[in-house]
């Protein structure tokens, strides 16, 4: 089974400052079709999850452009260019190449 | 309105059964693969099961394999999860989700709480 490891697990950030979350997979996420099915989800307190990014770096509709995804193979990153108050919540990476596996989650809070 | 609405959650004793339903509206349900994802209280997300648009492909997490059965009725725009031999560790909010891996268009329900306890 593919294991997804996120770091840090807790991320205190200052409003207006950048934030970065790392996600590492235990094996390559490149699928046989050449695509890499790595997703990022946001879950605000008391809400259902919401996907932000699919295939490493593609933003879903309605997602602010301050969110960006990058990486390849086994190492991936979600970046928030300038954190806003509404970004507080837990962020999960999820691989869709080898069935489906979530990372443990990274809790983003305001300092 | 494009939405997914889960129902069927509740309190059940260990070893019991429960059937969750998810009603889809506002989009062509039969064109999309669907999923069940759960979240235990205070814990992270766990993918439970996947079913392709035509029901030809089905996957289960190892933690539920042999106990849970996913199905769909495209004529009724509905997704189901039959849960048997329930255990304490199955206690969670269960989400119905449309999450295409290759394109945009994800959609989640509000979740339904399943509590397994004596």
Polypeptide structure, described:
The complex is a heterodimer of chains A (111) and B (118). With 111 residues, chain A is mainly beta. In chain A, 0% of the residues lie in helices and 49% in strands. Chain A has strands at residues 4-7, 10-13, 19-25, 38-43, 50-54, 58-59, 67-72, 75-80, 89-95, 101-102, 106-110. In chain A, the strands form two sheets. In chain A, strands 2, 4, 5, 6, 9, 10 and 11 form a seven-stranded mixed β-sheet that branches. In chain A, strand 7 (67-72) and strand 8 form a beta hairpin. Chain B is mainly beta and 118 residues long. Chain B has no helices and eleven strands. Chain B has strands at 3-7, 10-12, 18-25, 34-39, 45-51, 58-60, 68-73, 78-83, 92-98, 107-108, 112-116. In chain B, strands 2, 4, 5, 6, 9, 10 and 11 form a seven-stranded mixed β-sheet that branches. In chain B, strands 1-3-8-7 form a four-stranded antiparallel β-sheet, with no helix packed on it. The mean pLDDT of chain B is 97.
């Amino acid at each position: 089974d593919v294991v997804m490891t996120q770091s840090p697990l807790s991320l205190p950030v200052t409003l207006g400052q950048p934030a970065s979350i790392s996600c590492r997979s235990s094996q390559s996420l490149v699928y046989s079709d050449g695509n890499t099915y790595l997703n990022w989800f946001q879950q605000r307190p008391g809400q259902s999850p919401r996907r932000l990014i699919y295939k490493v770096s593609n933003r879903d509709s309605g997602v602010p452009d301050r969110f960006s995804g990058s990486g390849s193979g086994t190492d991936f990153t979600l970046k928030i260019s300038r954190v806003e108050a509404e970004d507080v919540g837990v962020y999960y990476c999820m691989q869709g190449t080898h069935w489906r596996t979530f990372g443990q989650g990274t809790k983003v809070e305001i300092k | 309105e494009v939405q997914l609405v889960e129902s069927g959650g509740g309190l059940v004793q260990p070893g019991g059964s429960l059937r969750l339903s998810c009603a889809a509206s506002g989009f062509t349900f039969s064109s999309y693969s669907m999923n069940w994802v759960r979240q235990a209280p205070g814990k992270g997300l766990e993918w439970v099961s996947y079913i392709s648009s035509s029901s030809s492909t089905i996957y289960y997490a190892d933690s539920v394999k042999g106990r849970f059965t996913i199905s769909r009725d495209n004529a009724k725009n509905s997704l189901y999860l039959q849960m048997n031999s329930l255990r304490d560790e199955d206690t969670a909010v269960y989400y119905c989700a449309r999450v295409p891996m290759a394109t945009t268009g994800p959609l989640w329900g509000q979740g339904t709480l399943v509590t397994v306890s004596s």
